[in-house]
Specification:
mainly alpha, elongated, about 120 residues
Length: about 120
Amino acid sequence: MDVLIHLFVGLHIIGIAALLGGFLTQMKAMGQGTARYTPAMLHGALTMLVTGIVLVGLNQADDQTVNNIKIGVKLALLIVILGLVYVKRDDEQVDKGPFGLVGLLTAANVFIAVLWT
């Protein structure tokens, strides 16, 4: 079971990397007002959602304790991220505010995962 959990943690980290990497590659364009949500951002967020749900299930099946409040907060942030990215995924450019919010919420999600014990 540990190998399976670690496999999904790795996939979850790849999803975070895709979402945050897509954001960071658009930082210069955001300064110019021409940033757009890349497909990598959408796919990364969806990967995070699916692997996160699987990780909660695997940890509960392995009789490990799961902090449901922490998971709920992380899920709420991810749903906001997914909503922003999904709705504007085909636009040629997005406003700085919502685009910056995606980066901020993604970073917050990472820090919640690492610091909330």
